[in-house]
Design goal:
The chain is an alpha+beta fold. It is built from 5 helices and 9 strands; from the N terminus they run E-E-E-H-H-E-H-E-H-E-E-E-E-H. The protein has helices at about 45-55, 55-60, 75-85, 95-100, 145-155; strands at about 15, 20-25, 30-35, 65-70, 90, 105-110, 115, 120-125, 130-135. It is globular.
Length: about 160
């Protein structure tokens, strides 16, 4: 079951594209946009993360950080980040635990792939409370970027 507004975000530790452990608690006291995406190097995922890359200054003005999570390996995420010039951490949920905790995991995705992250967006306040939650039914859809930014602005 997906998490909802008002829930405490489950804590996690995942490895980044830089092969460093990243904990949700590292962002305590900061606003955070947490994105889940199905697979690196796919069209919609590339479009989504490049949209966030291009809007990073807007998120910084809202005193927010961004992390993006998929079930891809850290090695794949490292190459994806470099290829697209992404400017925020990509985190590997290779074991699918965090995607499952956040209610953002497909049982079966395209081509019979099992255990792929759904496209989802969460905004967390500085205390780790979910203030915006969107788990998309279709991997071809994009998150509501305006709603994410409006939520972040309301936390000011």
């Amino acid at each position: 079951m997906p998490l909802k507004v008002g829930d405490k975000a489950p804590l996690f530790t995942l490895y980044s594209d830089e092969k460093k452990a990243v904990n949700l608690s590292d962002y305590r006291g900061r606003r955070l946009a947490v994105l889940f995406f199905p697979l690196a190097f796919t069209g919609t995922c590339t479009e989504e993360l490049c949209t966030m890359r291009d809007a990073l200054a807007d998120y910084n003005e809202l005193e927010a950080d961004i992390v993006a999570i998929s079930v891809d390996s850290v090695f794949t995420l490292e190459r994806f980040k470099a290829a697209e010039g992404l400017n925020f951490p990509l985190l590997s949920d290779f074991n699918k635990e965090v995607s499952r905790q956040y209610g953002a995991l497909y049982d079966t995705f395209v081509l019979g792939m099992e255990g792929v992250s759904k496209r989802a967006a969460f905004v967390l306040d500085g205390e780790g409370i979910i203030r915006y939650a969107e788990v998309l039914a279709s991997a071809g859809d994009q998150p509501d970027y305006s709603a994410m930014q409006a939520t972040l602005a309301s936390l000011s």
